[in-house]
Design goal:
Elements (H helix, E strand, L loop, with lengths): L2 H24 L10 H23 L5 H9 L8 H22 L1 H6 L3 H8 L8 H21 L3 E2 L7 E2 L7 H14 L9 H13 L15 H19 L1
Antiparallel strand pairs: 1-2
Helix pairs in contact: 1-2, 1-4, 1-6, 2-8, 3-4, 3-10, 4-9, 7-8, 7-10, 9-10
Length: 242
């Protein structure tokens, strides 16, 4: 298990579980059809937990190009490793979304609405407004990265400052943050807050032989890429100032 493989697996599980929930929630004739926004936001938070548990011990579990770049801007991660991490994250996102399609293919086939099929793969705005849509992605990613910068390990309160390893439980805080972002800030764009999470599956939507699919929404695709990157850089800059 190398950092490259860990980022592929962690991001792949993130998209498999997150995208799988969206498919379960909106495609026809699934057991979970109509689960609603609380179901989707909860699943994405738990998907992050699963991805971090897998990748954390080996790569730090960035599973998000905005995290890799934000940490590099803050001087907490070497720039030389950023391209490798981003490549792994993109591969993982593409694999994860492909597995969602394979698993839910029967439900893709019986769902006529092309917008719903695309929504399983990538985000789109509830109300198109480039300024507010990109602001949503900037703010959501800012909150994510700013919280990440201030995560700390538990310590024994005996004056020694001994760090206590939490094992897999250490992945809970970031899962809660992603859950909270979705509940509070996700309603305008679907809160990608992760360029690989949106771009990788969007590419697969364009490639896969999905019955009755519509265009892949490339006119909007730049927002869930640029917005999270801006948000991560702002968070890193404020962290350095403070």
């Amino acid at each position: 298990m190398t950092p490259f493989v860990a980022e592929i697996l962690g991001t792949g599980i993130l998209i498999l579980l997150g995208g799988g929930n969206v498919a379960n929630d909106i495609l026809k004739k699934t057991k979970g059809n109509g689960g609603g926004w609380l179901s989707i936001t909860t699943a994405w938070g738990l998907a992050v937990f699963a991805g971090v548990v897998i990748a954390g011990p080996y790569s730090g579990a960035h599973i998000n190009p905005a995290v890799s770049i934000g940490l590099a801007v803050a001087g907490l991660f070497p720039w030389s490793e950023v391209p490798i991490y981003i490549a792994a994250q993109m591969i993982g996102a593409m694999l994860g979304s492909s597995l969602v399609y394979v698993m839910y293919k029967d439900h893709f086939d019986v769902t006529e609405n092309g917008n719903l099929k695309r929504a399983v793969f990538c985000t789109e705005p509830a109300i198109p407004n480039n300024f507010r849509n990109i602001l949503s992605e900037i703010l959501g990613t800012f909150v994510l990265l700013f919280c990440v910068f201030y995560f700390s390990e538990a310590q024994i309160n005996d004056g020694s400052g001994t760090t206590v390893g939490l094992g897999s439980l250490g992945a809970i805080p970031v899962a809660f943050v992603v859950w909270g972002i979705g509940l509070s800030l996700g309603g305008t764009t679907g809160y990608a807050i992760n360029p690989a999470r949106d771009l990788g599956p969007r590419i697969m939507h364009a490639i896969l032989p999905i019955k009755g699919k519509i265009d892949s929404g490339w006119n909007y695709s730049w927002i869930p890429i640029v917005g999270p990157l801006i948000g991560s850089i702002i968070a890193a800059g404020l962290f350095l100032v403070l």
